[in-house]
Task: inverse folding
């Protein structure tokens, strides 16, 4: 079993509903259990002009190998009509494999830790909701990353069921 963190994001077609539905779908991945989910956040977009995002992070316990888990995540994105037209463009649902245990993975299809994890407030703050004492595989404490990553434009939304 591996503890994995998944970043969720959406800014199209009722983003809050997209993310909430995705939490349920993550819990249905075979050989995987949803252990925790962060608060929901609203964040400013990165990249071209587009609507604001809804973001969150989920903690899973899985027996799936990294690429099998990636395939499952991409299948969920496809079920949400995810279309990859523009780099960092708008999307119905984005699921990023942020951390897979303490593994460092450098494959053509998958890089873990996620390459932008350390720079994105909409990832770091939700991670801290779940595991404030988290350390990255290289030993870097999440608290250190947060101290260098302002929450500019990031807003924790009121609790949703």
Result:
């Amino acid at each position: 079993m591996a503890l994995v963190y998944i970043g969720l994001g959406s800014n199209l077609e009722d983003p809050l509903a997209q993310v909430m539905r995705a939490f349920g779908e993550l819990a249905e991945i075979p050989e995987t259990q949803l252990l925790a989910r962060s608060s929901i956040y609203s964040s400013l977009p990165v990249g071209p002009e587009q609507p604001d995002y809804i973001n969150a992070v989920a903690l899973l316990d899985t027996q799936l190998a990294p690429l099998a888990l990636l395939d499952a995540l991409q299948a969920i994105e496809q079920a949400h009509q995810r279309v990859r037209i523009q780099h960092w463009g708008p999307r119905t649902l984005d699921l990023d494999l942020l951390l897979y245990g303490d593994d460092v993975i450098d494959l053509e299809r998958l890089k873990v830790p996620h390459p932008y994890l350390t720079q994105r407030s909409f990832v770091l703050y939700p991670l801290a909701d779940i595991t404030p004492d988290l350390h990255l595989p290289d030993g870097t404490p999440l608290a250190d990353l947060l101290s260098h990553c302002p929450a500019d434009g990031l807003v924790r939304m009121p609790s949703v069921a």
